[in-house]
Amino acid sequence: MARRSTQITLQNNTDLDLTMVSWHLCHGSWTNDVSPPSTIPNQSTASWESESSGIATGTEGWVKYQITNPTSCVPELVYIYWDNPFVWANDTQAVNYSVTTTDVNPPCDGGQWDTPGGFPHGGTNPPECTHVLFGISCSGGSPQGITWWDVAVNWPALLGLTVLGQADINLQFTIGLGLKGSVRQMFGTEDILAIARTKGQPSLRALMHL
User: Fold this and answer.
1) What is the spatial distance between Cα 162 and Cα 88, in angstroms, rounded to a whole number?
2) Which helix (H) or strand (E) covers residue 11, if one does?
3) Deepest of 32, 60, 75, 142, by most Cβ within 10 A of its Cβ?
């Protein structure tokens, strides 16, 4: 197994398809030579994984998808970035993601939209057109175990494991995409009060980004 790897699983809970805009693997290689898919149909799940490919190296990359919003909506960009270096630093972002109506410049390079001038849109969508990404789960293969809280919020907990490069860090993130405020698309049939407590959120409004 590679010393560093990150697997991203994206659950498209929306009723809309996702179309690849661009991706770039800044460091490392795709596990089993499988890159992110060109499309992710509605109500489906896609996974991809990158890994270190040299001595004392890590892996870092990003993907961008466009949500096929109705013509009455401002086009939205789904952006997911990950970084799992051999030696972590104070500014390491294990994972970062957003849904925007403008282009996003990843930390490892510019990654412009595939038209002149970058993402050719902008503005604010009404609630029925506004989507969000949200963390569902995270696991990590390391001697002491890694939780979503460790890598997404309390990342300094990992510095002791990686400062000498002695621990294998193999992270797995599951991220959901749903219509903002939609219980069905963001939580399904689960008990959302229990989910809020599990994720340490003070209220359903905070959990649902309202």
Assistant:
1) 6
2) strand 4-12
3) 60
